Input
Amino acid sequence: MIQRGLIESRRRDLELIARLAFMSILTLIVALTASAALFDSELQQALETAGPNRIVLEDALERVPASQRDGLVWLITHMPEQDRRQLTADYLLENAAVAYEAWQSAPWHEDVPEEIFLDSILPYASINERRDEWRRSFREQFAPLVAEARTTSEAAAILNNKVFPMVGVKYSTQRPKADQSALESIEAGMASCTGLSILLIDACRSVGVPARFVGTPLWSDGSGNHSWVEIYDGGQWHFTGAAEPSGMELNKGWFTGRAAGALEGDPRRAIFAVTWRKVPLHFPLVWKPDDTSVGAVDVSRRYVSGTPSIKPGEARVRFRAMGQDSRRVATPISVHDSQDQVLFEGLTRDERFDANDHLEVVLPIGSRINIKTEAGLQSVVVTQDEQLVSLDMVPRGSFPPPDQSLSRTQTQTMKARLIQAWRAREEASRRRELASGVLEHGDVSMPIFYSIHGEKPEGGRSLYISMHGGGGAPPEVNDRQWKNQQRLYRIDEGVYVAPRAPSDTWNLWHQGHVDPLFDRLITSMILVEGVNPDRVYLTGYSAGGDGVYQLAPRMADRFAAAAMMAGHPNETSHEGLRNLPMAIHVGENDSPYGRNRVAGEWKDRLAKARAEDEGGYEHVVELHAGKGHWMDGDDAKALPWMAQFNRVNRPERIVWKQDDVTHDRFYWLKVDEPVARDRMVVERRGQTITISEPGGAKKLTIRLDDSMLDLDQPVIVKGPAGETLFEGTVPRTRSVLEQTLAEREDPNGVYSAEITVTIGG
Output
């Protein structure tokens, strides 16, 4: 039924139909000249079910602002068929306009992904209730109530406390009907749990809070049905009883005990959440059992299972498998450690389950795991609690077996597909992470500030990571140093990031957690801000300069250049800088910790290394005359100096000097058991790779691709005494592509072939 206020709008639409219906050929012309979105097969299928109302929907699509078009298309393709046959263009356009306004103006906008907006803010109805024009009037009434709220949970709790007394609606079994719309409940002054839930959901959606209808057809004890509301916040769904607030808290209610007895998969005793996505399940409308038009996901598991207890140093890791059309699929997976021991086996959830319901296991933070599926292998490092791992599941037959030899063309295609899949599964979560302003690794957090400058060049933006000074001081002192670093340097182009050190110790940037946090920062910037992975630069002042001395050699394969300002290196070595240009700027009078003296020593070392190793150790060292610890901005010249360089990603010669913080991969080399302070030298000439200094390594894995040599021709690997360790062709395989992408999540650091050799054995 359409509310009486819609009659005039409906009359105009019917007149439009009458004028055009007699000319079927005109309908064809309209279809042919419609925008490209109209030709989307899914939209076309939806329009074909609209009957005479199709012209009304097409009119809405013609009139909708471009910024709201995707939302309207999504709504039309996902709404019940009956709505396609009767809703007016004005109704749909008004609904979309106010929904987008509420979402985009909310202080929590960045925390609500578009897919959540589409499914839990944009829809004009929850179940089969009357389609009313409620959104704008509700927004005008209820937005002032949540003006000071900063999270969706806070806003929802305020609304649950205040809306029902404001509109005069109470719970009553004497309500006119179960499935009342919000306006019908206000008119009646009473509603059952169903009507109360609809009213709270509409109030939440009117102010940009994602909310959805949840319920069970029958409690496990046979005592009847119940409905309530879920609110999206912090990447999770939280529940509350409509008109049953628990103060300002969610996830509390009289029904939690009964909900714990739900039976997952049971159409009568499971707990279901409404979704407008296309899913196999429907919400069981106990008042209208033959109506299967309302989609649902089974969320019983969240109500039945408590949060698993985890120990310090452990994390809950969740797995989802994504098939065609980015839909979840149920597939068996096995999780293995680095020694290929099985840690866990299970079955992923498909679209019958809530979008946040995933297969879960508790694993040690910092461990590298390999996940095996029928589609292949994916390797990840466990970095934080509630980590979500997305597995790309392409239908069988569309990917070659993991170890099947590929041609050069097949390899290029496969690499592009793997990178595309990685972007698709990671971008949304990385965008939310950057928007939060905090990166995490295990129990360590690193706040960040960043700003974007200039136009994005072809190939992607530059990235400057600028580390602050301080250290060995109270947090407020280091916070001031961080604020200063945010404005210390100016760039013409790129992303300027000033991270806040995770600790306040003297060795702010030396510690082992900094490396994975910077890895995470770089890959997130590649995904979200379009950074070119070959144009990443590292700099820092004072204690931040200490960090450059430490990080640049051991992470040289991540950066294009580095610039050290007013720091000192402690025990670190310059040797890993063979392929990384390095600038050193220190005041001539900056004598504490021997900064000026050590800068001079490094100048001599780098000059000697460059003279002895042709093509390596590009550097500039300047002791600024008359300057002390602060160089009055003279050091800023290092930034344009760095900008002239791109990363040397596949060098012909590698000098790998391990620090006290070790890495198992450096450029195109990998070892299983890195040793602190170890030194290795490897070079390639044509088809021959020579390990001139193996260090303490017993085994070495060498990664290759067609940009380095001809993989269709034999490759030779020689040991330090000139002995041949390997000779033969090296196959390009999907498994190596997958493994090397998973290790670094660096689109330009993906290799297609590898050789593992034993040294001295």
Observations:
- Confidence is low (pLDDT under 50) at residues 1-7, 16-39.
- The chain is about 30% helix and 25% strand.
- The first helix runs from residue 7 to 21.
